[in-house]
Amino acid sequence: MDKSQDALVLLRQIIRATDMQDKEISRCSGLTLPQLMIMQTLRLSAPISTGELAKEISLTQATVTSILDRLEKKELISRERGKEDKRKVWINLTTAGGELMKGAPTTQQDLFTRRFDDMQTWEQSMVVSALERIAFMLDAQHLDAAPMLDIGQLDRAVHPES
Amino acid sequence: MDKSQDALVLLRQIIRATDMQDKEISRCSGLTLPQLMIMQTLRLSAPISTGELAKEISLTQATVTSILDRLEKKELISRERGKEDKRKVWINLTTAGGELMKGAPTTQQDLFTRRFDDMQTWEQSMVVSALERIAFMLDAQHLDAAPMLDIGQLDRAVHPES
DNA sequence: AATTTTATTTAGCATTACAAATCATTTACT
DNA sequence: AGTAAATGATTTGTAATGCTAAATAAAATT
Question: How far apart, in Å, are the Cα atoms of B51 and each of B27, B54, B56, B76, B86?
Answer without folding.
Answer: 27, 5, 9, 19, 14
